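Notes on consecutive records. When two proteins share a document, each keeps its own sequence and its own token line. Never mix them. Below: protein one.
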Amino acid sequence: MVKSTDLCNEEWSHALIKELVHQEIRDYFIAIGSRSTPLILAAERNPLTRTHIHFDERGLAFAALGFARAKKKPAAIIVTSGTAVANLYPAIVEACMDEVPLLILAADRPFELLQVGSEQAIDQIKMFGSYLKGEWILPAPSSDVPIDFVRSIAAKASHQTLLPRPGPVMINCMYKKPLSLDQPYTPPTTLAPQTTYLPTSQEPSDSSLKLLADLFSQHEKGMIIAGKLDEGDQLEEIFTLSLKLQWPIFADPTSNLRNIGRSSSSIPYFNSILKNTDAKKTLQPTIVLHVGDKYVSTHLQEWIASVPVKAYVHVSSHKTVDPYHQVSHRLECSPSLFAKRILPNLKGMPPSLWLGMWKEHSLRAEEYVNDFFEETEKLQEPILLHLLGNLARSDMHFFFGTSLPIRYADGYFYPRDSAGRVFATRGASGIDGNIAQAIGITKALDVPMICVIGDQTFLHDVNSLAMLTNSSLSFTLVVLNNFGSGIFSFLPISKQKDVFEKCFTAPHSFEVSHFAKAFSIEYAKVETPHEFTEIMKNARTRKSPLILEFFSDVEKNHEYLLSIDTYLSKELKTKSSLRTFYRDLLK
């Protein structure tokens, strides 16, 4: 029986969404549009879905990315045809590079309307090039094609977002008019799920574990670098491994190892040590164990690249990280599972002078950083991140924006107590969609979120504030407003004053308060450490969004950061008898 176009559109769309729900894709981020009407109706009317609406496709995609990043499972994006799809590009790039599962359901014109000048008809096929893990094309719905075809594509595409590596996948859905029925469509209740994918796991082989255990046992001067990790509550296994080996841990803020409590093997303020002591020369490792993905610290990267290590072992669930081409051994495995499985193969090492030396440096660096910041009466950008570390609690989660905030966090965010998770955009490290991502994460976890970004990052994503209007999210947005791009003041180009301010700093006069008022969001300005501390003490219990703005000056901020290193360099290079004793024994 030949069915009408509008009926076929609804049947296919409901079957598509129902199969995706079976594959546990329950959250749909929807941008308003016409050609996507059948998809919107199917997503909104399925009783097992949650829909999130935003008018801006670019921000919407980043909100979905943040949601999927936090949940560690795919979120779906529904957009109409044409440039609406193109607006997803930055988020798709980030999802690809940081391996976040996303499923894009892009409405499209049918084949006969392409390349003939039809309204809103562009070539959407292969639009995102190599940044998609997979791309599927559904022709215009027709009764001539069995509906099981649609359900099979849905199952394959959803599975592809996760395995063998997470990432974005697109289904291009062509629709003819009329797009939908005049009355609500009632899908059949007899349509059973199409496909069930059975779980698999990555297990390190016994031979690999023995080989690495033998390798580790040959080196006293080893270190563990922890990049971005997603293992949650099992991160303690990595601390256990470091203590058994007596190797120090250099933990990136996105590793979340900083947030589960202090370990006797962790090295807080390692950036300050590398910049302001002779440790780069006197405490060089012979082996590096790198667990997880990328890490922020340029000082650490460049130092390790200059050290002639005898082995560099990288353990990550799925991602290859080797910018300086040093990796000698690579194991694709969950870092926490690897730590747990290799522990029985290792002999426990006695307390190490090597680790003791690093700990002494770390304790002294922390002492002097605290002293320096406590003596500063006026709030400064790095102090703000340091205070957040002191105020962090287990029910507070953090998003640090690209550019200076994540670098301040890398240098000075070291929670004293157990704290919530840290998120950041480190795939392509763009300043796009940071507000939207943080909002998506907050929606996914339903927890208090502290988001710290710069003014340029804020201006890039102002539209996403609309998702906070009339919201009950516990969301505190802290904007460091230095009226330009402060990060460029650290680059050599800053010395060329004739072009620097106009072309790189890109100065502006915007104040965040005006945007907060426009979107009906509560606002406050902070000027002192005390003011910031008092407001943040109540951040965990807030039931509505708040925007905090801190004004700073690019040049004065740069001078303040240099003064920190000047002070630390003077204090940390004071030689103690204990340090000399350690160094002589390690020779």
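Protein two starts on the next line and is unrelated to protein one.
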Amino acid sequence: MAFRQPPPPGPAAQRNYWLRVLTSPVLACLALFALNAYICRELFHIGYIGNLDSNEGAFVAISRFYREHFADQRWFPFFNTGMPIENAYQPLLPVAAAVAGWLSGWSVEHAFHFVLALAYCLGPVTLFWFAWDWSRSATVGMVAGLAYSLLSFTELLIPTLRVQTEGGHWAPIRLYYLIHYAEDPHQAAVALFPLALLFLRRAIVYRTPGSRVGAIVFSGAVVLTNGFGMMDLALGGLCIVLALRRGFGTLAATGLAAYLWVSPWLPPSLLALIRKDQWTTGQHFRNSQPMQFLLAGMLLAMALIWFATRRLQPLERFSALFAPWMCVFPMAFFLYDITLVPQSGRYQIELELAMSLLAGWIFARLWGHSGRAGRILLAVLVLAAGFQQTKVYRRFARGLIRPVEITSTIEYKVTHWLDRNMPGQLVMISGDVEYLYNVLSNNPQLGGGHEPQVPNWMDRVAIFSIYTGGGAPEKEGESALLWLKAFGAQAVYVPGEKSRENYHPVVHPHKFDGLLPVLWHEEDDTIFAVPQRSKSRAHVVPRGALVARQPIHGLDQEAARVFVAALDDPALPLAEQTWQGNAAFTVRAPVRSGQVVSVQMSYLPGWKATVNGHAVPVRGDGLGLLVMEPDCDGACEIHAWYGMTTEAWFCRIASLLVSLGLAAMLFRQRQNSPVSAA
């Protein structure tokens, strides 16, 4: 093993030695981490932040689920009448927070924010390491890391996104988006992204087993953190290949291996769902130009940039190719109302990273072509600007990362009342309360999830209809009540016009007045009871009462009315449902010929059921709810559980084979290392 040699004798030699030490990449990384930790230091130890109107609570709720149900996580019962755990969200950030909380004993919200702070501080570090590893220039890496830490190119390029600060410009967009908009997994994915690119370049250039393993592992980690990582990796990998003029086969093989490795958490069916629903989250195509013309224009622009940068160094060429695409998505969206890719208005973090890397090599060029006086001037400018921006960022962060007394919030009061008075019952939670709800409660809710990954489309239709009505105002209450009863909600929370809840999504909050009994009212917030014949979500109904086809929209209610009438029919027997963990339950009820058991929970392939050890048909109805056909004639006991589908088995086998391949490559790397050879 090699050890660092002591400083050589002589003043000149010692000066050169300590200069190399001080400019070593490890010290640069430590300095960048310390700078960002100083800026966001409250984030390391805070519990609840006063940004309850963001969807951060949903991520914390998933972290809590992983922490408390690590051995029983096939089915996630909290959001949208239930879903497979992989549909809840990409798992890496919630799992990391769950592990951090388990090891430290911290509360789930404290552990989550600690991991989030680490990710925020590591972003500039990984960017530095990528730039330094490729260029071997500490100047390029350090300036890129400092720019990513202390500048906001988004505010420069998109004036409408500027954030007001005191005493400076270019406020910390990264931190602002992290806290205010809860871009938590997104920022964590972008922090890992440079490491995936670093190992991908090494795999192309050096072809070592360790580099290939690193490229696959970190690419998989990026995708397991956030869906935006897929687009980042595709464009970033392509730009590396174009900058090096080789490596397309390595890029394709790395992408395929990385996907197969993570496919149990991102199976093809979930990818298809995301692809189908990604345009339904509010950022859709709003220009009239056909997609093929936009795609052709983008490819032509990339070709022109590639040709124009042929004389640049590979890292410079990569930056020149990558930065325009990370800029064009949000700029086209905010400046010209053009949506080029799904959710174009959320690529600001990638814009910051790409422009910081571009700034790094431009500064290095200026440094290399400057004399002694010019370098002194550049250094003074960087230090002065950095010092000023550090003060601005620190002041901004101190005002942004503020704790909230959670028990005084309306979100807590609603959640606490429901958890105490209606344990285990499905409820409809409106507005931002749904995000915090399952941080504090185990009760399932009708909403709460992330829309592009919700497997039951009719659940989303029902929620939209309850919020907006869409019909005659005098009939809105009855229409909303129909959907609440069809999906098994026992109560609905409605914020009034003066509520402290942020979004006020119920367009006409008084539509339930006089229609539903009031369970709780405080300030301008009300919890209404939804009359149901049973607290169970399992019901015996005639087969003919099931909704046979999916309604066209929320006002297509004829079949749903027949189904709800069967739920309310006192002549039909009641069913008892008992859960065994999160992914299995038992239903006991007298069932006659021609009757079925409907469970107000989302159906997906993987649900199975037996009666007396014999399998019974399980399917979904037109509302996407679970239906079991036990073919009983009398007392019936049905055991149901969520198990593995054929797709899930294939994904797990593929992931295992890739894991074995990665282990074999690491073993080969170790066998070929100089230490092993010695």
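For the record: The CA atoms of residues 287 and 327 lie 18 Å apart.
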